[in-house]
Amino acid sequence: MTEQYAATNINVPRGSRSVFTNTQLTFDDELVVIVAGAPTLTLPDARQIPAWGVMVKSVGGLGSVDTLLGQTIDGAGVFAFTAAQEALVVRSDGANWVIEDPGSGGGGSALQIDDDGATVETNAVLLNFIGPGVTAAAAGAGAVDITIPGGAGTDRQEDITTQNIVGTDTTLVDTLSFQPRDPASVQLQLNGVVQVQGAGNDYILIGATDQSITWLASSGGAVDMATTDELIAYYISV
Predict the structure, then answer these.
(1) Chain segment 196-227, per-residue pLDDT in tens
(2) Angle 22-24-29 (CA atoms, 0-180°, nearest 5)?
C-alpha cells in the first residue's frame, strides 16, 4: 500500500509518508518525504524510545526538522534542508538526536569487511559473492565467514616439474618458487585431482621455507608419478 501526493505524483512505500505541511513525527515513521513547500517536521521526545531513528528526505520541497523540549540535533536546535534530494537520518541517544549517514540505509549499523583479519571496508552496504563454489555462512556474533575453495583466493599458481616415482617417498627436484604464507593451505593438483597434504597422505612440504615437496608414494597414499603427469601448486606467498 502506498500514499500519494497527487500534485507531485510521488509514491512512498508502506510505513512511510509524504508531507507538505507542518507535521509532528511519530515513532511509527520510518521514512518521511517532503514533496512540496517548506514545512517544519518536529521530532518526538528523544527520551521515550532510545535508539529509534527516522529518515527525512527532501524531494519536491525543502523545509526543516525541529525538536521538542529544547532537545538538539547534533548540538543544534533545528536542521534545515538546503537542496532537493537531501536526506537526513537521525537517531535518539536517549536524550537528544544524533545525525547518521543516510548511506547506511536509514540509520542501520555500518558493515565492516575484513580480509584475513585485515579491515578493508568499514561502511559497506552490499556484498556480492562471485565465482563457483564461493559460500558465505553465519559465524556468530553478527559475523559472516566467506569460504573460497580450491585455487581461488591465491596469488600463486605454478607448474611443478614431475618425475618418475614408483612406490617410494621422493623429494621432487622442482620446488615452490616462493615461500608460502601458510604452508597448510598450499594445494597441489595432480592431473586436475586435489592431493591431500600431511604425513600419511599424498605429500608434505619440507625445508626451512616449506618450498620443497616430498611425494609420499610409499609411506602415504600418493599415487605413482610420471614425467607426463601435470602437477600444479596453488598458494599465497609471503
Answers:
(1) 999 999 999 999 999 999 999 999 999 999 99
(2) 120
Mean pLDDT of 36-40: 92
CA distance 176 to 234: 10
Domain 3-104 classification at class level? mainly beta
Please state the domain extents for the chain: 3-104, 111-147, 156-235
Q: What is the pTM of this model?
A: 0.41
pLDDT band for position 113 (cuts 50, 70, 90): confident
Q: How far is 180 from 237, CA to CA, in rounded Å?
A: 4
- Fill in the amino acid letter for 168: T
In the block, residue with C-alpha cell 559475523: 143
> Which residues, other chains included, contact 185 with Cβ-Cβ below 8 Å and sequence gap of 6+?
235, 236
Contacts of 180 (CB under 8 A, 6+ apart): 156, 186, 205, 210, 211, 235, 236, 237, 238
Q: How far is CA 146 from CA 50, 113, 136, 187, in A?
A: 34, 11, 4, 19
Say whether 184 sits in a helix, a strand or coil: helix
